[in-house]
From TrEMBL:
The keyword Cell membrane does not apply. Hydrolase that can specifically remove 'Lys-48'-linked conjugated ubiquitin from proteins. Has exodeubiquitinase activity and has a preference for long polyubiquitin chains. May play a regulatory role at the level of protein turnover. The keyword Manganese does not apply. It is an enzyme of class 3 (hydrolase). Keywords: Hydrolase, Protease, Thiol protease, Ubl conjugation pathway. GO terms for molecular function: cysteine-type deubiquitinase activity; histone deubiquitinase activity; K48-linked deubiquitinase activity; K48-linked polyubiquitin modification-dependent protein binding. Residues 185-217 have a biased composition (Low complexity). It holds the Pfam family MINDY_DUB. This is Ubiquitin carboxyl-terminal hydrolase. Residues 183-247 are annotated as: Disordered. One of its GO terms (biological process) is proteolysis. Its EC number is 3.4.19.12.
Amino acid sequence: QIDDIVKAVGNCSYNQLVEKIISCKQSDNSELVSEGFVAEQFLNNTATQLTYHGLCELTSTVQEGELCVFFQNNHFSTMTKYKGLLYLLVTDQGFLTEEKVVWESLHNVDGDGNFCDSEFHLRPPSDPETVYRGQQDQIDQDYLMALSLQQEQQSQEINWEQIPEGISDLELAKKLQEEEDRRASQYYQEQEQAAAAAASAATQAQQSQPAQASPSSGRQSGNSERKRKEPREDKEKEKEKNSCVIL
C-alpha cells in the first residue's frame, strides 16, 4: 500500500534488510540514503518482527487444527489454529506454576494475547508479576545461551580458510563429523585420566594411613594382663592369713 516502503524493503529478509540499511547510509547517492532511512523506519515500526499483513497471511495459510513452527524475534514457537484464531504454545519459565495456562492467542502484532487452557478456554494467569519476572529470566537465560553458543563456535578448531571452495556437502559433512569425533574422543580421554588420577590418589592415601589396633585386640590384651596379675594377688593374701603378728 505504501510504494516507498515496498521499494525500500522489497523481498529482503531481516538480516538482508539490516545490511541494506547500512550500505545505503554509507552511499553518496541521496536516493539510496533516503531509501535506507525509509527501511530503517520500517524496522522501528515493526520491532516485533510481525506486521498485520503478515498476521493476515498466517491466518489464511494455516489450516484448522494444523501444528506448525512460528519463528519470531529469534524464538521458535509451536503454533496452531482453532476456530479461525491462531494460538502459540506457552513455554515461558514464568508459567511453570500455571498449570491451566497452555496457549496464548496471536491476534495482534503487539504480543499481548489472551491466555487459554488446553481446551482454548480463557484462563488468565494468577500472578502477572510472577509471569513478568519469569519472562525476564527467560530472556536472560536465552542471552547467556546465545553467548555460550557463540563462544563454542569461535573455539572450534576448524580452519575454514583452508577448506577448498569446490568441496561438496558430503565431504564437508565428513570433515565436520571427524572434528566432532576427535573432540569427543579427547573429552572421554580427559575424563578417564581424571578418574584414574583420583583412584590412584585414594589408594595412596589408604596405604599411608597407619594401622590402628582394633578394640577387640585391646580388650584381649587387657584380659591377659588381669589374668597374669590375679594369681600373684591370691598368693599374697594366703601368705598374710598364715602369718602371725607378735605384739
